[in-house]
Amino acid sequence: MKNVLKGITTRTVTRDAPSGRRIALRLALRAVPGTPAASGAGARRLPRRPATAASILGRWTGRRAMSIAIPGTRPATSYRSWLPRLSGRVMRDLRAWMIAFGLLIGVAFPFVMMALGVPSDIALRPVVFAATLLAGLIVAEVNHALAQAVVGVRLRALAAGMQRVESSLVAAAFTGDWAACDPQACRVPVDSADELGDVAASFNKLVDGLATSHRVADAISAMSEALAAHLDLDTLAEATLRELTARTGCDAAALLVVTNGRIDLAGSRGIRDAAQLTSTEAVLAAVRATEPTVLHLPPDLVITGALVDFTPQEIQVLPVHYGILTVGVLVIAFAQPSPPEADSVIRATLPGLAVALNNSLNHEDLQRVAALDPLTGVYNRRFGQQRLTEEFGRSLRSGDPLGVLMLDLDHFKTVNDTYGHLVGDRVLQAVVKAARHALREGDVLLRYGGEEFLIVLPGAGTDDLTQMAERVRRAVADTTVTEAAQRIPVTVSIGGAGLPHTDAATPNDLIALADKALYTAKDTGRDRCIIA
Q: pTM for this structure?
């Protein structure tokens, strides 16, 4: 995965559906031999009347054999035959034609008997005529009963199946529950290898297709709900990949985001060290591409350095576009070739994923801006205290130590009064830069007040707190700020406190202890550290 990453007239008719939508019926009518052409030399023009759906469908269902042209299929000839319709029911018509045929045979049979040598005075007796007519009627009725038993029962089963599907569709349209449309419940038996069997098989395929469309629709709906429910990038990626693997059957997936030309991993499932994907050629190419990349791998291919625990046969690398921008890349791996249902769900999910990713990235930017002090670029007091509250609760639950350092610039008012506030701002920025270099990864630096800063040190015990305070103090003392070729000395006083070696019951208690130690450091000479 890492390494290979003529004679047909068409007319369109619109009808208003019950739902309010306009349905276009495109009818392709074959020209019937012997009828005037629509155009051409010698053609007689008929008076033009407005074509309506009823008139077109009426001509379509006339006695002449016509066809419907469906793209990608052979035209289906009309089921109408040369026999006229006697009633509105096919089986009743069949019985009438059978009786007529039986009577015809009954009338003709005496003459056949004469042709076979039976004397005419015997063959043409009224009793013989009556017997042959009665026999013809009996045969017709028996044939009709057999047709009912052999054909009618299957047609009734098919009709019942259609009614079940129709009832299920109507109920599901109101309740949203498609469980009644289970293919196993709506199937009809296929027990003949002829036209009736073909009809039953076609009906079952229709039911299967309907169930498939519902599964795809449900999957797309679930994906849309997952995308709309989250703004945080991490939870969005987790929910998206969880639903994607469940709805498409993929064996591994990863979501990467593109921000300011940088590719970052947002989340993954079933992939070891998925961060490696950010530098693969397939992902880099997807960022520049406008179309998805689908790699079909032969089953006997052995991939070295694989990121997954299986041999993928299909890998999809899909750019996620928001307008003309690429905001992400979706990588999906299948151990077997993906089914058409999965492809439909994936393609339908991409536009919504693009909107969700864009919203999430914008939300992160807004959160970042709202959490930062505009002058120094460190966290502001509101966000910093929120982080302190989180770490304080974690420390109480786990028993791990937690330390805070409160530092204040010495004689900062003198700097502002002597050099001006712009120079004072430069001093604050220099102090923040020096403190950041001294801190560990995971430590939180925030601007608490004008020239006061608070440092939250998760996992720092008493000795760690003392050492860290001294590192910060020395880093600030070594900072050089010059104005008009004159060096401005910068020092800080630091007070600290921590858990569990103090009796602080709340985060504010811990800050108060550190603030008290800070003022002790100021009162005893400044440029020093005091730990409570």
A: 0.55
User: pLDDT (tens digit, 9 = 90+) per residue, 87-99?
Assistant: 877 888 888 888 8
Amino acid 515 reads D
* Strand locations in 291-360 (E): 293-296, 314-322, 325-334
Tell me how far apart the alpha carbons of residues 154 and 152 are, in angstroms, rounded to a whole number.
Answer: 5
The residues, any chain, with a CB within 8 Å of residue 74's CB and separated by 6 or more, are: none
Residue 428 CA to its chain's centroid (Å): 49
DSSP 82-141: SSPP-SS-HHHHHHHHHHHHHHHHHHHHHHHHHHTT--HHHHT-HHHHHHHHHHHHHHHH
- What pLDDT shows up at residue 402? 94
b/e map 379-393, b = 16+ CB within 10 Å: bbeebbbebbeebbe
Question: Structure tokens of 157?
Answer: 């089963």
Residue 300 buriedness (CB in 10 A; 0-12 / 13-18 / 19+) = exposed
CB 320 within 8 A of CB 357: yes
The amino acid that residue 430 corresponds to is A
How far from 224 is each of 56, 232, 250, 347, CA to CA, in Å? Answer: 42, 16, 18, 12
Which of 320, 337, 338 lies closest to 329 in space, CA to CA? 320
Q: Could you give the CA distance from residue 484 to residue 504 in angstroms, rounded to a whole number?
A: 46
pLDDT at 299: 61
Residues 6+ apart with CB under 8 A from 154: 191, 192, 196, 200
Helix and strand numbers (H, E) in the chain are: 15, 16
CA distance 278 to 206: 44
CA distance 457 to 124: 122
Predicted local confidence at residue 297, as pLDDT: 63
Q: Hey, which bits of 365-428 come out as E strands?
A: 402-409
CA distance 82 to 214: 41
Report pLDDT for 163: 81
| Residue segments in the chain with a per-residue pLDDT below the cut of 70 | 1-82, 176-181, 185, 297-306
What lies within 8 Å, CB to CB, of 332 at 6+ separation is 244, 248, 250, 252, 253, 315, 316, 318, 338, 346
